[in-house]
Amino acid sequence: MRQKLLNISPLDGRYASKLSFFKDFFSESALFKKRIFVEIEYLKQLSSFGVIRKLSQKEIVVLDQIVSNFDLNDALRIKEIEEKINHDIKAVEYFLREKFNRKKLEDLTAFIHLGLTSEDINNLAYGLIFKDLKKNVLEKELEKVLVSLKELADRYKKMPFLARSHGQPAVPTTFGKEIANFVHRLQKQQKRLNVFKFEGKLNGAVGNYNALSLIFRQIDWIKFSRVFIGQLGLVPNFNTTQILPYDNWVEFFQKLILINNIFLGLSRDIWTYIMLEELRLIAGKNQVGSSTMPQKVNPIDFENAEGNLEVANSYFQLYERKLPISRLQRDLSDSTVRRTFGVALGHTVLAWNSLQQGLGKIALDEEKIKENLNHHWEVLAEAIQVYLRSTGEVRGYEKIKKITQGKKMTRENYLSLIKELRLDKTEIDFINLSPEKYVGLADKLIGL
Questions:
Q1: What does the pLDDT look like over 164-216, one tens digit per residue?
Q2: DSSP symbol at 108
Q3: Residue 387 and residue 235: Cα distance in Å, rounded?
Q4: Are 177 and 171 in contact (CB under 8 A)?
Q5: Could you tell me if 96 and 105 are in contact, meaning their C-beta atoms sit under 8 angstroms apart?
Q6: Percent helix, strand and coil across the chain, each to the nearest 5
Q7: Which of 2, 230, 338, 344 gets the highest tally of CB atoms within 10 A of its CB?
């Protein structure tokens, strides 16, 4: 607790308990570990392609254990080396030399990071982190929210609800249908997120295998890269400079921007329904809504979600603008920016979790919903004008507009209008029509 109070970032302070698992993805220690994994796998691939001597099964186990046993002390040692030489990837290489020497693998030290540039390691390490986070966190958290939304949509699919356009009473819908609209949008993005693949590159200082193809002419380095990157679960990109073009990662961020914007709209809509008292919040036993107004129950989960979604998207939009552009074959201005990836993704996960919590605390105030519907019989004006025009009355819309525009109607006003227009004896049962019944095919549209 004391340390949390001294941290600068809210992700490491106020929200640390909610994102403790994020250290396994985006802490510097986690990045070191993933870089070491890539270096070890590369060395094993050099052996399998005959670039270096064959590794025994025992040696492979020893190499794998360097990764699996990696801990905070190892990370601290890498930082000590980095502080002396001012280069993080070279510090990883020197750390591995130390490990190899202690494990009687001295003859392999010369081949660590052989022919590679730092970005060969970095892009693959980040790609693996993104892949793991997407599969183990983002896909699961998104599915949780979708399950909650689908349950709400199904439970209230027949619950009449006053829709509003431009903030004004429009025509009725059902609450379930309005939630289902968000479900439908999110499911489309979920499919695209789930099948998204991250790219990787392994082709040297400017992307041409210059040193490797000169020194080891017998090796098909394009095949080497294709096999190696594919085995990591990434898609090889052979057309690069020193860096992997960020286009692929930006596409990933763009998918998250869209999902976050859908959630932003949902959060604001739920907040508004609460303000209109059509939804009510179930207060926690010890929850305090206000430091001075004891009666309050605030929609803090939805407000928290909204704030975190906007913070996350501000970072993602920065990545959109900044990362696809690099001077010539490489500049280092991207390095500082990409160290914030965990911040953007952390705020995203926080927002999704807040939204999920909030959805579990809302309930419809059915009496208030019915009251709102019955205070606005003018919403049936649409049905009347469409019927008049269907009979050939060219100015049917204008006639009803003159009577209803900007006015509230009661049931009595409505019935009087129906009789005045002689619509009480048509094939359409206008007499028994009401705002609660005028919901169209809302419940049938859910799930289509």
A1: 999 999 999 999 999 999 999 999 999 999 999 999 999 999 999 999 999 99
A2: G
A3: 58
A4: no
A5: no
A6: 60, 5, 35
A7: 344
Residue 35's pLDDT band, with cuts at 50, 70 and 90, is: very high
Q: What span, in angstroms and rounded, lies between the C-alpha atoms of 129 and 138?
A: 12
Decide if 236 contacts 244 (C-beta within 8 A): no
CA–CA gap between residue 164 and residue 184 (Å, rounded)? 20
Distance of CA 379 to the CA centre of its chain: 37
Backbone angles phi and psi of 281, in degrees to 5? -100, 140
> Taking a C-beta distance cutoff of 8 angstroms, is the pair 183, 153 a contact?
yes
Mapping DSSP to helix (H, G, I), strand (E, B) and coil, where does residue 145 land? helix
**Whether the Cβ atoms of residue 55 and residue 47 lie closer than 8 Å to each other:** yes
Residue 117 to residue 27: CA distance in whole angstroms: 22
pLDDT higher than threshold 70 for residue 286? no
- Residue range(s) occupied by CATH 1.10.40.30 in the chain: 376-445
Q: Which residues contact 56 (CB under 8 A, 6 or more apart)?
A: none
The DSSP annotation for 85-99 comes to HS-HHHHHHHHHHHH
Topology adopted by domain 4-114: Fumarase C; Chain B, domain 1 (1.10.275)
pTM: 0.94
- Calpha distance 203→42 (Å, rounded): 12
Q: How far is residue 380 CA from its own chain's centroid?
A: 40
The CATH number for 133-202+243-365, chosen from 1.20.200.10, 3.30.70.100, 3.40.1280.10, 1.10.10.10, is 1.20.200.10
376-445 architecture in CATH?
Orthogonal Bundle (1.10)
CA 186/CA 169 separation, integer angstroms: 26
pLDDT tens profile 293-343: 566 678 899 999 999 999 999 999 999 999 999 999 989 899 999 999 999
HSE-CB of 301 using CA atoms within 13 angstroms: 21
The angle formed by the CA atoms of residues 312, 19 and 153, to the nearest 5 degrees, is 65
Task: Give the Cα separation of 277 and 255 in Å (integer).
Answer: 33
The DSSP bridge partners found for residue 160 are 174
- Taking the C-alpha atoms of residue 241 and residue 103, their distance in angstroms, rounded to an integer, is 36
Cα diameter, the chain: 100
Count other C-beta atoms under 10 Å from residue 448's C-beta.
7
Integer Cα distance of 129 and 339 in angstroms? 13
Residues designated catalytic:
166, 290
The count of residues in the chain is: 448
Burial class (CB in 10 A: 0-12, 13-18, 19+), 10: middle
Token pair, residue 331, equals: 């500049």
